[in-house]
Design a protein that fits this description.
Radius of gyration: 34 Å
Number of domains: 2
Mean pLDDT: 91
Strand content: 15-25%
Structural class: alpha+beta
Helix content: 40-55%
Number of strands: 16
């Protein structure tokens, strides 16, 4: 290479493609939701109190000298007030999930994301954490100034107090969650004596950490990127679904003006472009841009906009609950409600009620005793004295309710069939399972060679109960 030749590094010129690629990786900007009051805010806080009273209070309720709501995984018993569910009742869990899914479909088809806006744990705990943040650090402007200021003793103290309260709420939430699986009074003693088991400690801190991280730090990121519901909610909407809608025809053109100015003379709509609807939104969207998957239906923008309309002397409802057809066709509230009862909604409602009624009847008519008959496969049959032939069985008997019972068990199907190995009457403890080995004997001459179909009969020994069970089996000769 001659001295005249030089190696010149080549740097690719920036182009639109590279700029677009960089724009895909947006750095998260912290959202500072502004406090808002109003009719919908009161409903939202009423749901916060209602859901949290149930969640935190249910483990402390007693029923029949035990915890009213307890999912005892070790004993494989789920107690829900007076009902005891066993592993064999798994079908009821499946039915509960189906009911929850259909309810979600129905409510979403009628009025959008009601679950997300009012009852979702992410929304509820974010609302609680935001309230703590406002109490300690101040409202939106004060929080922004505090975060922008350099570290000082005051800033450190406020941040420490806020996170201390957040952590306390999160740990109490984790403690309550574990209290649904370990009796909460027993769990309290273990916490006080620092003798928590490994699994209780793991789930207490894991659930507490998840609450602290999701409600304190991730917040809207959970709704926008982690929750799948935001992605498929659109298939459950139609133009007659009640959603949070901005009346573009009434609001545009936007622009600031004095309270005394005539907007029509200025060529303006009712929207004063104050951006209150953006400032109160927990996910930071602008509802005036139309329907967006980030909208969780919390209705904070409705309350915020109504406050501005009141101050300006304009009619409320620039942002309101309405269907897209209702806004575009200027439908009244009654007409929009009538359109709610469309075929799609009626089908969801009919199916949901059919499942609920069927599940309720099944629970009401559930037989309180379950019996499984298992024939001993080690020996088909054997001859014993007095010209009898004997078969051996194992009976697993379950008392599904918290009530002691006495049973009478017999067997038929072969002449002269005798059952031995069980006390008469058979006493069952409340919510218990017992295994018994029993024998059936029959005269050799009364049974056919090979297999004989027989039936075990289980009946209550007292007049208090009214049920009868029959279990099939085989008697070999």
């Amino acid at each position: 290479m001659s001295s005249a030749q030089k190696v010149i590094p080549i740097h690719p010129a920036p182009d639109a493609a590279s700029d677009q690629e960089q724009a895909l990786y947006e750095v998260r900007k912290k959202i500072y939701p502004r406090a808002v009051s109003g009719w919908f805010a009161k409903w939202r806080w009423a749901l916060v109190w209602f859901t949290q009273l149930i969640f935190y209070g249910a483990p402390w309720l007693s029923w029949n000298d035990r915890q009213a709501v307890l999912f005892d995984l070790g004993a494989r018993k789920f107690y829900i007030f007076g009902i005891v569910f066993w592993p064999q009742d798994f079908i009821y869990l499946a039915v509960l999930l189906v009911i929850s899914a259909y309810s979600l479909f129905l409510f979403t088809a009628v009025a959008g994301r009601l679950w997300c806006g009012y009852a979702c744990p992410q929304t509820v705990y974010t609302e609680i954490f935001l309230w703590v943040e406002r109490v300690i650090e101040g409202d939106r402007i004060a929080q922004m100034r505090l975060d922008a200021s350099p570290l000082s003793a005051r800033k450190f103290g406020l941040k420490s107090a806020k996170h201390g309260v957040w952590i306390a709420i999160s740990l109490w939430t984790g403690f309550t969650f574990v209290g649904y699986f370990t009796p909460i009074q027993e769990l309290t003693r273990e916490v006080v004596s620092s003798s928590l088991g490994p699994w209780e400690a793991f789930w207490l801190f894991f659930y507490g950490f998840a609450t602290y991280g999701n409600a304190g730090w991730l917040r809207e990121q959970v709704c926008k990127y982690m929750c799948p519901y935001a992605r498929f909610q659109g298939v459950m909407f139609d133009r007659d679904t009640l959603v949070i809608a901005y009346d573009e025809e009434r609001g545009e053109q936007r622009g600031s003006r004095s309270k005394k100015a005539d907007p029509k003379a200025l060529g303006l709509g009712d929207c004063v472009d104050c951006e209150i609807c953006v400032q109160v939104c927990p996910t930071g969207i602008d509802i005036r841009k139309g329907q967006q998957y980030e909208c969780i239906g919390c209705t904070a923008c409705i309350d915020g906009c109504d406050q501005v309309m009141d101050k300006m002397g304009y009619a409320r409802g620039l942002i309101r609950y309405a269907s897209l057809n209702g806004v575009s066709q200027h439908l009244g509230w009654r007409e929009m409600i009538r359109r709610v009862f469309r075929p799609r909604v009626m089908i969801y409602t009919a199916v949901l009620w059919a499942i609920i009624i069927a599940a309720g009847l099944s629970l009401w008519n559930r037989v309180p005793v379950k019996v499984d008959v298992i024939r001993d496969r080690a020996t088909l049959s054997r001859e014993v004295g007095d010209g009898l032939i004997e078969n051996v069985y194992r009976l697993q008997i379950m008392n599904t309710q918290e009530k002691a019972r006495e049973l009478k068990i017999s067997a038929t199907g072969v002449d002269g069939l005798q059952l031995t190995g069980l006390p008469s009457p058979l006493a069952l403890e409340p919510a218990s399972t017992r295994m018994y080995t029993v024998t059936l004997r029959a005269p050799v001459t009364s049974a056919q060679k090979g297999s004989n179909r027989i039936m075990f009969h289980i009946e209550p020994a007292t007049a208090e109960d009214d049920f009868a069970l029959q279990e099939k089996s085989i008697f070999f000769k």
